[in-house]
Amino acid sequence: MLSFFDVTVDFDRSHLIFPILVSAVLAVLGAVILATRRAEIGAALAATPRWPAGTDRMRLFGTVVLVIIYFLAMERIGRAIPNRGFGFLFASAPFVLAISLLYMHGLSRRRVIIAVLNAVIAPLVVWFILSSLFNISLP
Amino acid sequence: MDLLSDLTPLFFFLTIAGTFVGIIFGAIPGMTATMAVAVCLPLTYSLGLINGMALLLGLYVGGISGGLVPAVLLNIPGTPSSITTTFDGYPMAQRGEGERALKLGIAASLFGGMFSLLILYLFAPALADFAIKFSYVEKFLIIFLALTVMAALSGNMLIGIFSGVLGMLISLIGAYDVSDGGNGEYRLMFPFMEYYLDSGFSLLPVLIGLFGLSAILIEAEQGVPEDSSLSKMEISRSTPFRWTDFGGQFINLFRSASIGTFVGLLPGVGGSAASVLSYSQAKTFSKTPEQFGRGNPSGVIASETANNGLTGGALIPLLSLGIPGDSTTAILIGAFTLQGIQVGPLFIGQNVETWNMMIIAMLVANIAMFVIMFYAIRNICKVVTVPKHLLFPVILMMCVVGSYTINYGIMFDVWTLLIFGLVGYLFHRIGLEVAPFIIGFILGPSAEVYFVKSLESYGNLTIFFTKSWIAVVLWLLIMGSIWLSVFVARKARA
Fold first, then answer.
1. Contact B310, B259 (CB under 8 A)
2. What is the ipTM score, two decimals?
């Protein structure tokens, strides 16, 4: 005799059971959070300016843009010269330098020279250790 | 004999080097033990499991310990777990007792680390032996319990559990794995994503994105301030450190180490909770609570003993149940996966050699941490002055290496790093919690298999309540943690 708690699992649809259950729990939790923090969320959405005071948007968005360019460049160079890790090496050096310059407060000749050395030496050392010594694949 | 043959110079070198690098990471504000382990993970590819673990455990112990240096000297916690060290450490430094405060903290860290290591050694095999008897039902309930405990102890119960369940949902993206008894069908994505997300998002790029890239984005948002104060770190020593300073501190040490180890056991609850809880208990039981916050050595001892007590505690659920105790041990799962080893109840029994070497690595790391910090504290203060504009780009580069190499060269994993770096930053902005998200993400696929297979095997929902007395006990613990959540929420509101 079937009871209220009996469950029959259809194997063909078994991949959906847990995601549906978890989504339902998430929806309920989301609804409760919205209901209990309505005022707080509404105030945050209506707030102007959207960014908190003191946000350095240039460094934040600059980082994101440089990271995207870095990944794209690494992939392109890696395809052009495959299996040697050159995509990583040749894309990393300018990326490290660009991020260093973006984060630097107060440019000076000495600081820039150190940043250039860092941008050349650090990727070269990592590439040499991982790709040449340990044979780990790099882009 | 196997054990002796594993004790190579390389093993000791990696443990000590890992500890040293970890201390540096911990001592630089904005960088954490988790980041240190994530960034150095790719180095373990060619080292093998034992040597790789030696490096990572050294980084873990060092990373947790290093946060004490700027906490005492600059009033800036190097890691979140050193927050309460600033309360009394900094006032001590201001009145000329910087060296005393640091050395008290270092010795207390050693005690906390050793205590938790002992508990790990004694308790983890017993828990694993017990957990071997668990069926899918009990395993699912253990994960359910982990999530409810995590929610109960997170900053905000609802947000904590929402973050955990969200992590679980994200982990289900991809095919329902045939090797786990699934039907291989895709879910939670569009057809064009199937090529990239057949096995879902890889754990390591997700972790590195959430803890590495997002931390740098948060720093970038704040303008990557140059800590000019770091270069001014000076160790005042008008009152020198004496071992007799520990007189009358035995109960404080023991209680704090116990709290740290216990908090470490709880999934997703970090070192900051351990040190805050320990500090508040030390204050409550003190005969002179009014001196806390004004440079009381007991405060430094309580905080530092507890945060290092976390290290061994967090490894207990990882090695005996496969559930990480904190975010850093979650990354260690990646190191095991890399070597083709699954952590869980069978791990210790089937990998006795690795288990013993992990214990030795933790022991060596704690001793190395003590020696390095106790005798070379002045030099560490100099090393942490490396500017962030030189350090952060190199860390970003290492994040890429770690993500790319996890699956032997898949570019999509590098994009996953960016996606979850942005997700981590977004979480920071809107107030969601990363640690529960990660625990949910790690446990999601297992929870699915245990839940669905339980239903397939027994065909009745009541099996989750009636399977065994263990299931009943687990439900009692789950109810207890839910009650604790409600109690904590009501108390906070009152």
1. no
2. 0.93
